[in-house]
């Protein structure tokens, strides 16, 4: 996710841990994409001490089948924990992230969230929200209770293992769970979470399991390491520029359960497609425009300084690739949507693997009744009736630079983020036209 606010130009690409200064590319950003407006937005979150270090990141949409008007949006706020919103964008529950065990340790930091429907619990099957706790290197699992005043209840096994670390020192180094996608294998009924590792290329497949006490834990099935460097058409080797010691990480992920494939956004590289069980080789279905651009990290300036663009990148995505979500139109039809964070757009790809996920178009979320979405991180879409407000379904996107700006007592602009709700009918019309 980007950590720089303010106006971005085609010459400045902000990577997860560094600012990359790049030349203007001949493969110009598409400025002709249709602009869609949001219906509403959630309350602003502030990433400072006064705001509880709450930073909007990733949403998931839960449908109340008995009362679609009472459906919810569950979203991460990093050190601010979880927020639960109704369809009007009103907060109905706030769950804090776990505190640091000692002053020398990192506190909980909720990064991504996804849902599992009908998960088996001792009290019966229930929908659960699964969250990556980047701060403490664990998954957190919450049962969803329809109609409850506080709909989320923590059912995580207190003895659940660390996901990637072997020691608490490694936990505090924060190469911990980052991106997340859940899925259920219909053939076996088993549910899984695919989790990416911050600052690394590793993905882990975790099976979710119920303990004898009724809590939810997980076990690692296997891991897969995506490439960290790439051979370009001219025979040279290229790796995205990062801070020393870091690799090109993945955050945005989604599983297509019909085709049993995982889509993973390697932020400064592009979008990969691979088996959801991590049991096969990945294919890079699209690249960011910056793919192949040579750059070196300037420690004094704390930025990546780039050379000439050799022209090996794609034409639809500007780094970072974020917010992958699946627009399911039934019978295997629909779109893979991706946030192109570098140019504030969204790209849509054909869901059909047989068509090799052909690019189908794109759009922007622009200002209307509320402001638009900029530097979008997480996104979620649900193509199902959601009561009177969203009878055609809903797209929720993070806004990484919510406006209007607010300033602190020293006159500095406060980090201000939130989530935008977009009527899905607007999206489908834009993609079908």
From TrEMBL:
Residues 26-431 form the BPP domain. It comes from the Bacteria. The keyword Ubl conjugation does not apply. The keyword Signal applies. Residues 1-28 form the signal peptide. Keywords: Hydrolase, Signal. One of its GO terms (molecular function) is hydrolase activity. This is Hydrolase.
